[in-house]
Amino acid sequence: MIYLHNKKIKTKNISNSIGKFAAEHLLKTSEYDFNINQVDTYIKTIADDDFLLYKDDPKNYYNDKNKLINEHVQFQQFYIITIKAPIKCVLSLDYTIKYTDNNTSAYIILNPDSHIPYKTYKPKEIYLLLLKELNKIKAQNKILVNIFDNQMKDKLKAFTKHLYQGKFSKKIKIPLFDGIEPEISRNSKLIMHFLKKQNNHQVAEVNEGEVLVEFIKPIFGKNGLNAFGEIITNNYSNNKDDLEADIDSDTIEIIEDEKTKIYKSKIKGYVQFNKKELYIDNKLKISKLSRVQNALAKDEDNNIEVTVSQNDTSIDSIGEGVRLTSESIHINGHIGAKSVLEAVNLKIDGATHTESIQKAKFADINRHKGKLRCHKAKIKLLEGGVIHATHVEVEASLGGTIYAEDVIIGHVKNNLKVYASNSITIRLVSGEDNLFKINYRDIPTLNSKLNFLDKEIEDLKYTLDGALKHTQSQVPILKDKIKKLQNQKYKIVNSAKSAKITITEPLKGLNTITFTLNDKDELTYKTDARLYKPFYIEESEDYIILHPTNKKIPTES
């Protein structure tokens, strides 16, 4: 067994000193106890630069609280203690400590499970033992000792009498410190601004720099004194009404002054608040979105990811009439009628309604029945839906319409119409009444692009005319820009000449292959149940031929 030497020290923080002493001796703090030998009280007034030792209350601060407040008296205490090995405790108190607002008063709540051997001691001895123990508890918790404790002593005497009457069967509250309450001329107030956005919507989306929470600090008409000897002023306040949550410093900035404390978002996103944490996230997961909760985001480039999950397959994750815009949207369920989804990245694990609209740069949809506009689409099953895109990949089709530059399909059954400008590649066509057509005029996005190119070329030619007269150095640059735009236009207009339709496996029935030429002439072929090599056109001096068939039309002389 290690023998522990007693050590006398002077300290302002008893717990830290015992902890340091225990660490030096490689022991636990629980293996030490202490006695208070002396308490030295220091004060600092409005006239003092430093804390000064204060004995016997010569200025009557302890009795004249108005004087104490007017002179801004602050207190500090140092304790001379003896750290020692614990001996068998006479008392063992089961307790908790509570504080009033601003910590002006402190109370100890004694539990009846406390060990107080009053039957073997006289009442005065028990009172003195309890007083000593309470002062030790106060000192460990930095509560001022030996001053402003008249209530404690009176209550302790009453409790001792109560104890000897055998009535200590319920918890009892004993005041430890009787401070001075400040006079409040304006109460504190916590305003959760982001919650106002949740009144109409399921979640709160905020912009960068937006105020999320505002704590308005109380204003004191008259200062107070707390249990730790600190003056309670407008600069103090324990901010009991302030937000009690861990704040993510990466996404939320705190700005504080004498009057307010502001919690402001650093990024654009959705507020995540669960009473314990407050942060901004660009990923949002919710179970369902209904029409009254539709305005989650306003901009496509808001760097936000929305995930809507609904485990009940009979309920749409996106309700009827919802309009949702975000950078990334992931819907685990189905899409309701008359809903509009807009995103850069769109993923739908369920089915889109025939009366729904989706707009995205990249779209990944399980079952598509609605109207989709995007740059690149991946569809697992096309069920009568419409697709406008640059590139389209479909695993299987049960009908629908596709407008794109390049289309790849795994399995086509019946009643599918595909309009493409560059290529249509299909593994298997097992049904009939399908149309596979090469014609850039049928693709609205290409028509819009041609109109744009014509306008740009016209504007550049106008600028070129001016440069030829006044700025010769710009002429080569302008001519080069015009040439590049004309090449883009030529590639679109003449896309049928290099386009190809490929069907890997034998066809099962009657389907239509069509190539539309620049002058609106068409080469159309009705397929048989057989295997075909890729379809493409070849232009000679006399004919334009559709391979691998014998269909041809004469070239204009």
Please give a structural write-up.
The protein is of the alpha/beta class and 557 residues long. Helices cover 18% and strands 38% of the residues. The protein is built from seven helices and 37 strands. The protein has a six-stranded parallel β-barrel. A four-stranded antiparallel beta sheet has the order 1-4-2-3, covered by helices on one side. Strand 36 (543-547) and strand 37 (552-554) form a beta hairpin. Helix 3 packs across helix 4 (150-164) and helix 6 packs antiparallel against helix 7. The radius of gyration is 41 Å and the shape is elongated. The termini are far apart. The relative contact order is 0.05.
Q: Within the largest sheet, what's the order of strands? A: 24-25-27-29-28-26
Structure classification: alpha/beta
Specify the number of helices: 7
Global shape? elongated
- End-to-end Cα distance, whole Å, is 116 Å
Q: Major beta sheet, specifics?
A: 6 strands, parallel, barrel
In short:
With 557 residues, the protein is an alpha/beta fold. It is 18% helix and 38% strand.
What labels describe this entry?
alpha/beta; 4-stranded antiparallel beta sheet; 18% helix
